[in-house]
TrEMBL record:
Gene (name only): Paox_0
Any GO BP: spermidine catabolic process
Superkingdom to which the source organism belongs: Eukaryota
Subcellular location: Cytoplasm
Protein name: PAOX oxidase
Family membership noted in the UniProt record: Belongs to the flavin monoamine oxidase family.
């Protein structure tokens, strides 16, 4: 089996996607990804997978009711993308905009029947959590509405690397002379706008000197810095000497990125049907119009969106990959594997209603 800790899919695998082009050129993808109809499919960033939705009352929810809520959410999200490049948006954040759109629709949701209305709201709350994973945020209230439409989803049905995402950098590395890429080489300081010389060679001056934690240093004409935003937030003042211009420092301060985690659960035997590739979880008492609980210890697991079934099972075994974003995801990082495993087992037993299921997950 192969568990991708980070990136797993090529999103929008079509000729406009440079990762897809490289992977295709190197022959790293399976035959399905190479099919033209696969590359042309417009999935809008949400590839349709055969799914089953479990509710917190321990039952499978009506696929019709679930897709009705999904359709509404997709339409609202599409409308949230129309403010890019337009004038003043009607709300500052995507979260506020969605609530303002959902609230007046509440009386007619689910045909106006109380239980059906509650279910529609609960599924909408689950849609919001999925969108938090996709946008890498704790809350859609932290995602600005106006530029939301700037993110363009390329066509193509998401595909994976049969040999793992690492097969791409491995292939790129194999074309470079040995020693070109240095791993485990933390940079301490980037000195720029200077005039640096190699020892004993005053003939050539370099404007940049990259100093590493282990004492090594490299001179350069230019550097391309791709350290994570979180690192820049903490360290940009002393990482760059002289410090970055105000405009860039301000951009680093204002930008944000939340925490995203995966939970892998391996089973001896699947409790899902062979055709099911997505197991969604819905907490039936939730609503996108209500503030989520801040008691992370008691409720962190409710932020879990659901699980993707890793494909193909012949390669991976029976493995579910769950997704969880935000502060709940950060809280989960403080727990031991055994604690996460215990909670996941409880949640799955409660939502699937399969008390005697062979749930023997190993995170
Ligand atoms: C759970 C999860 C699932 C994801 N799934 C997908 C997916 O399916 N498909 C997809 O396309 N994307 C996915 N992503 C997003 C994708 O992983 C990121 O967009 C991508 O890794 C960003 O690449 P990067 O090079 O910008 O940053 P990073 O991958 O974060 O690389 C930054 C590098 O900088 C190094 N570094 C930090 N400080 C220093 C220093 N001082 N000196 C030297 N090096 C330093 C770090 O060690 C790291 O290697 C996922 C992300 C997560 C967290």
């Amino acid at each position: 089996g192969l568990a991708e800790l980070g990136a797993h899919w090529i999103h929008g695998p079509s000729p406009g996607n440079p990762i897809f082009r490289l992977a295709t050129r190197y022959g790293l993808l399976g035959p399905a990804a190479a099919r033209e109809e696969n590359q042309r499919a417009e999935a809008g960033g949400h590839p349709p997978l055969p799914s089953v939705t479990y509710g917190s009352s321990g039952r499978v929810l009506s696929p019709q009711a679930v897709s009705k809520a999904h359709e509404l959410f997709d339409a609202l999200l599409a409308s949230a993308r129309t403010f890019w490049g337009a004038g003043e948006p009607p709300a500052p954040s995507v979260g506020q905009y969605l609530r303002a759109q959902i609230a007046p629709r509440v009386p007619t949701l689910g045909g106006g029947r109380e239980d059906a209305r509650r279910l529609q709201l609960a599924v909408l709350a689950a849609c919001v959590k999925l969108e938090c994973c996709i946008s890498g945020t704790h809350s859609l209230d932290l995602v600005a509405l106006q530029p939301f439409g700037e993110y363009v989803s390329l066509p193509g049905l998401d595909c994976t690397f049969p040999g793992g995402y690492g097969s791409l950098p491995d292939r790129l590395l194999s074309a470079l002379p040995a020693g070109t890429v240095l791993l485990n080489k933390a940079v301490r300081t980037i000195r720029w706008r200077g005039s640096f010389h190699e020892d004993g060679d005053l003939g050539r001056a370099f404007p940049v000197r990259v100093e590493c934690e282990d004492g090594d240093a490299f001179l350069a004409d230019h550097v391309i810095v791709t350290v994570p935003l979180g690192f820049l937030k903490e360290r940009h003042q002393d990482f760059f000497q002289p410090p970055l211009p105000r405009r860039k420092a301000e951009a680093i301060r204002r930008l944000g990125f939340g925490t995203n985690n995966k939970i892998f659960l391996e089973f001896e035997r699947p409790f899902w049907e062979p055709q099911q590739q997505l197991l969604e979880l819905v907490w039936e008492d939730e609503s996108p119009l209500e503030e989520p609980s801040t008691d992370l210890e008691a409720t962190w697991f409710k932020k879990l969106v659901g699980f993707v079934v890793l494909q193909p099972p012949e390669q991976h075994g029976h493995v579910l990959c769950g997704f969880i974003a935000g502060k709940e995801s950060e809280y989960m990082e403080t727990l031991s594997d055994a604690e996460v495993l215990g909670t996941m087992t409880r949640v799955l037993r409660m939502l699937t209603g399969i008390a005697a299921a062979p749930l023997t997950p190993t995170p």
